[in-house]
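Researcher: I'd like a candidate sequence for this fold, 151 residues long. If you have to choose between options at a position, lean toward the conservative one.
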């Protein structure tokens, strides 16, 4: 049995410990934020926070989550409304396909937690490993900087 906290809720899962965390989140726990992109830790669309640190849930075994705190996109909402960073993405229309957006927002959330006032270059460096193929990059960076300004 694997037990962890998912977006503030205690969950327990009786599945093989080697099952990819992404699969468990999506198929068994109704967490539809993280997306399956490459399945090889290359694209970042499956990014979630584990104890506040971004991890690629497509290659992380379920066992790695035992006793940890996992945050998905839904966990950033505040009182049923979009959180500050989510709202900034909405305000900047910082998504085209939206497929990569959950992972990018969580990667950005981790950045803002360790550096609440990042520069443009620091935002770009932090998001470098999260692939967006459709050209929303500049709006994504503006959204993160907008959220940082509101901090
Ligand atoms: S789906 Fe996990 S990094 Fe691409
Ligand atoms: S918004 Fe998803 S690939 Fe660009």
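Model: Candidate sequence:
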């Amino acid at each position: 049995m694997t037990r962890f906290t998912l977006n503030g809720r205690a969950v327990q899962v009786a599945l093989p410990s080697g099952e990819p965390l992404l699969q468990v989140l999506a198929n068994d726990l109704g967490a539809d934020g993280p997306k399956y992109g490459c399945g090889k830790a290359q694209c970042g669309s499956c990014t979630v926070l584990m104890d506040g640190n971004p991890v690629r849930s497509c290659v992380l075994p379920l066992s790695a989550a035992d006793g940890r705190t996992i945050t998905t996109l839904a966990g950033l909402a505040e009182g049923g409304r979009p959180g500050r960073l989510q709202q900034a993405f909405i305000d900047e229309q910082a998504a085209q396909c939206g497929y990569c957006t959950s992972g990018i927002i969580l990667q950005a959330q981790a950045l803002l937690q360790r550096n609440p006032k990042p520069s443009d270059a620091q935002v770009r460096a932090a998001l470098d490993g999260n692939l967006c193929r459709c050209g929303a990059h500049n709006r994504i960076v503006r959204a993160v900087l907008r959220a940082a300004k509101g901090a």
